[in-house]
Amino acid sequence: MALAALIAAYHESAEPAVLCAALPLAGRTVVERQVRLAAAAGATRILVFAERMPADLAAALERLRRERLPVRLVRSAEEAAEATEASDRLILLADGAIVEAHMLAALARAEGPVVLSVPDAGRGEIYERIDGHSRWAGAAALDGALLHETVAMLRDWDLQSTLLRRVLQHGASQIAADGPVAILDSAEDLAALKRDILAAANASGVGWAERALAPVERLLALLLIASPVGAWAPGYLALGLTALGAAAFAFHWLWTGLVLTLLATPLDGAAVRLARVRMEGEAEQSWWSHLLPVFAGLALLGLGASRAEFDGWGTMLLAALPIAFLLAQGVEVRGHPVRGIVFLAERKGLAWLMLPFAVFGQWTAGLAALAGYSVASFFWAQRQAHRVSRIGTGESG
Questions:
Q1: DSSP of 350-361
Q2: In the listed set 166, 189, 212, which residue is the last one of a domain according to the structure?
Q3: Of 129, 161, 189, which residue sits at a domain end?
Q4: What pTM was estimated for this model as a whole?
Q5: Residue 286 CA to chain centroid, in angstroms?
Q6: Are residues 65 and 143 in the same domain?
Q7: 186 Cβ partners below 8 Å, 6+ apart?
Q8: pLDDT tens digits along 356-370
Q9: pLDDT digits over 29-51, tens only?
Q10: pLDDT band at 284, cuts 50/70/90?
Q11: Cα–Cα nearest to 29, from 96, 87, 84
Q12: Sign of the CA dihedral running 8, 11, 17, 23
């Protein structure tokens, strides 16, 4: 049994001459987020039902096709029925409805017709009432056969509302929403949802420097969220600044190199947050994310080489030690919970730790501190990881 999704995209919003589906959300449109949510829930065929095709909606669907999402435009209820098998499990998403993927997946797994509901209190008329205590949250699941039956008797009725009524008439069960849901109709609705989405889009870092930089990352993501700038842009900017910083260190422009490296530190986190807000995949899988640690390592080596002229080639060893021990630490902590991981050495923390040494002109002492910090972090991580392993196998000591 295949999982398909039918997204309504034909109602006018409260904004003049704009469909609900085409309202701007996180730099894209509502329908783009709906399609990505349906795909994340497991839908292998996503039908967007649009009776007319304004330019903004057409552009949104074209972007989705370029990203190879399984989206298909249908222009009538009959065409939607033809694109659906009677045996399909079908998720229905209302015009402008934003429902997180895990709730859509729960609807898909349920038996028979089912609707997602929210309490009646505090909900406007855009959330259709389904009984004396509940309103529809904008998502339902049904079998393809029920869609075929509904289309056969539809006449001039609204497909979305008629499908909901038919689902309820067939004794639909209810699943209460266990997270934020929204049915968007106006700019005011969008502003509230953007704040919620951005607050939930955390970056992956666990280090002390990454936590300290989190407010800056959120601010950068907020500034970019409504722009056409891709989520990759701050990531590649971080890569470029780090590469320039490495070159500056190599040419003995130590303060220039350090400033460029520090400016880069919040940008990759902002890229991760922006990608998660827009559901554009994991930014950590992009080329820039793999190259960024390489250029950060080159920056350290460049600093070591610059100081070698004054303090001997031992500074190159001091610069190489953090790189080697960070790589080894990454192997040790992979798949293991490590107590105190927030205090361990990591790329951004090393960059900021160099700052106080640079202020007093103690660049070589700073390299020695970074090396010592990295070595200590590695042995702590190794001890914690092996301790967890020993506990798991029942060993002691």
A1: HHHHHHHHHHTT
A2: 189
A3: 189
A4: 0.77
A5: 13
A6: yes
A7: 13, 14, 15
A8: 999 999 999 999 999
A9: 999 999 999 999 999 999 999 98
A10: low
A11: 96
A12: negative
